[in-house]
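Q: Hi! First time doing this. I have a protein sequence and I read that you can turn it into a structure. Is that right? Here it is:
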Amino acid sequence: MTAMRRATVVGAAGFIGRHLCRHLQRQGFEVHEAARDERGWIDGPLGHVFYCAGLTADFAQRPHDTVDAHVSLLDRVLRPQRFDSLVYLSSTRLYDGSLAEAAVEDAPLTLQPGQPRHLFDLSKALGEALCHAAGGGRARVARLSCVVKDASDDSGFLPGLLRDVARAVDQAPSGRPPRLAVDATPFAVRDYVHLDDVLRALVLIATRGTQPVYNVAGGRNLGNRELFARLRELSGCEIVAARHQRVRPAPRIDISRMRQEFSWQPACMLDKLAELLPAQALPQPC
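A: Yes, that's right. Below is the predicted 3D structure, encoded as structure tokens:
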């Protein structure tokens, strides 16, 4: 019998981390859930490390914690070199300053230290650089776009929108179509990728990856206007945008590397909306 593969998930209490732990266990891994405030686990054999620790929504209010999560703890994991592989979860937000039509992994990044929001981007970029410099050729980076599971997600624009649509449908007066006002512009676009595809991609990168950086994304920008129209088709709810300012088009995230190396093909988020909407938002059969 072959020995069970070992995995260490750093940041196992977070959104991706906790789902990744369960996914790895189903795949036959012995999983250690590493808490950030512990240190003893760093000295043991770690197997395949999935570095999911990080701050997202509250990074601006917690700059020191952000740097500690994205860089300092990572440095302490990399120093002993007691891992088979390490996958560092970064973000496609690093491409936001790009003027290119498509964002590829090897493209130069444009980051501004003077912008408060770029503390997140710069600390993630430093974490990536540390993986390249100190990972012994066994550390790889996964740049994730907007990861969505369903309407139960803790945060995120799309999960919140799904909940609001369901609530609007449920509370609509009898005989009147549901209507929802959202504090967003119809011109904004995002790349969405489903959690199931992300979990599958992370294991592929850890066990079979050969490149230093991989884009893990849907590979398609989904605009709010298109999103609102599809949700109206599904639920009958009219979504009205409160803001109408134009925004600079975001580059399309190129996922050719994932497709070519692993034959990885993510689901189209627009096609999955019917599965993600709460049941009460969908027309009920007569």
